[in-house]
Design brief:
- By secondary structure, this protein is α+β, with helices and mostly antiparallel strands.
- It has a single domain, classed as Alpha-Beta Complex (endopeptidase fold (from Nostoc punctiforme)), CATH 3.90.1720.
- 27% of the residues lie in helices and 14% in strands.
- Helix 2 packs across helix 3.
């Protein structure tokens, strides 16, 4: 099965009923769910996400070698993320919240779900998640389950 991995972002200005939406970005730690032609990378070459995680010290160097790629893990875990997220229906929103006992804010929730489902630790704040290195531009109609979309609201860059 071909391995396809990218950190993806969507940038656009969609309009609805004459109201112009604000800048939106999508940080992606998912792969395309449909097979696509790809050239296999040499075993010693890491995918972009694994390199990012290694550079930030989030995974040990030996963990990236000889194991399924993070791309494959995300592909396999996309439905797990949705199921995990559904378990938190009814947990209240709380600004700055990062746990089910006290509630979540948006970035706290996505960080918690990615960590529980995939073992992938995202930055805590939305603006840090949106500024992750290695983003690839993605059209709005290419968004997939597991993509994170960040909106420019309240006159802040990302929220």
């Amino acid at each position: 099965m071909p391995k396809h991995q990218a950190l993806r972002t969507w940038i656009g200005w969609p309009g609805a009923c004459g109201v112009q939406w604000l800048l939106a970005l999508s940080v992606v730690f998912v792969v395309l769910l449909w097979p696509s032609p790809a050239v296999a990378a040499p075993d010693d070459q890491l995918d972009a996400v694994s390199r990012l995680l290694l550079e930030r010290g989030l995974i040990p160097a030996d963990a990236a070698q000889g194991t399924p790629t993070l791309a494959q893990k995300v592909r396999d875990g996309a439905s797990d993320m949705v199921i995990t997220a559904m378990n938190f229906l009814g947990v209240p929103y709380r600004l700055g919240g990062s746990g089910e006992s006290g509630g979540f804010d948006c970035s706290g929730f996505t960080r918690h779900i990615f960590e529980m489902s995939l073992g992938l630790v995202l930055p805590r704040r939305a603006d840090d998640q949106a500024k992750a290195d290695g983003l690839v531009e993605v059209r709005r109609d290419e968004l997939r389950p597991g993509d994170l979309v960040f909106f420019n609201t309240l006159r802040r860059t990302f929220s």
